[in-house]
Design brief:
four-stranded antiparallel β-sheet; 37% helix; 27% strand
Length: 257
């Protein structure tokens, strides 16, 4: 599938991670992570379940604290900034949760309005309506504006979750297993949407997944997390051009069944 190519500035890292370690009691999840995300890039982080992929993006967004190491996001060291500055930084980061995290008691419109009203003081009703309409059009679901989340399919819920993230115009997108639990056709649609978001909104994104089709279709660069470290990085073909017993079965499971 053709992937529109958004310009990537390899001289401008919007996220820089150095020496990141995270353990839970005696379980060492991340064992010294070094990683850069560049302006305009879709970076896919691949790995088996339980390898620390979701832990990584929770640390980046300040939802978890690292044991050691430094994490610089949009020029800010997230371990050293105040709670107020961290909250302001989070507004510039869009987090697309695996379960979409919609409020079941709110219509689609109210779900999309909520982050605007909460974070944009003094915003007018006209501005709210315009923003809601724009992001719904961007994800192809304008017709769902008055529906409840329970009336949506799994793929539609994913799209609305992405729309709610986009409504604050984030500079960075963090996608946590965006195709999990979806049928193959809907997975392709979500992959295409991730690429469209990159191109239209000029976002820099980290996409956490173990779905190789998602990785291949969305990733400008792939970073494979093995044994708590990034062992392989590069294009999709570069990462999987190996006989490494930790990597080859991963490819075979996804593409040779």
């Amino acid at each position: 599938m053709y992937k529109p190519k958004a310009p990537i500035d390899y001289n401008n890292a919007v996220i820089t991670i150095k020496g990141l370690k995270k353990s839970f009691d005696d379980y060492h999840v991340l064992r010294g992570i070094d990683l850069d995300l560049y302006q305009g890039e879709n970076l896919v982080v691949l790995g088996r379940s339980g390898t620390g992929k979701s832990v990584l993006i929770k640390i980046i967004s300040g939802l978890l604290q690292a044991d050691t190491g430094t994490i610089t996001v949009l020029g800010k060291d997230i371990d050293k900034i105040s709670d107020k500055d961290l909250q302001e930084l989070r507004i510039r980061i869009g987090f697309s949760f695996q379960n979409s995290a919609l409020y079941d008691s709110m219509t689609v419109r109210k779900n999309l309005e909520f982050p605007l009203v909460r974070n944009r003081k003094g915003i007018t009703r006209k501005e709210i309506d315009s923003a809601v309409e724009e992001v719904l059009e961007a994800v192809g679901l304008s017709q769902t504006i008055n529906q409840m989340p329970s009336e949506l399919s799994g793929g539609q819920r994913k799209r609305i979750g992405i729309a709610r993230t986009l409504i604050l115009n984030p500079e960075i997108m963090l996608y946590d297993e965006p195709t999990a639990g979806l049928d193959p056709i809907t997975c392709i649609e979500i992959n295409e949407l991730i690429n469209e978001v990159q191109e239209k909104y000029k976002t820099s994104s980290i996409i956490i997944t173990h779905d190789l089709t998602c990785a291949k279709q969305t990733g400008d660069r792939i970073a494979m997390l093995l044994d708590g470290q990034f062992q392989r990085q590069g294009t999709f073909d570069e990462v999987f051009d190996t006989n490494d017993d930790r990597v080859k079965p991963f490819f075979d499971y996804n593409f040779i069944k």
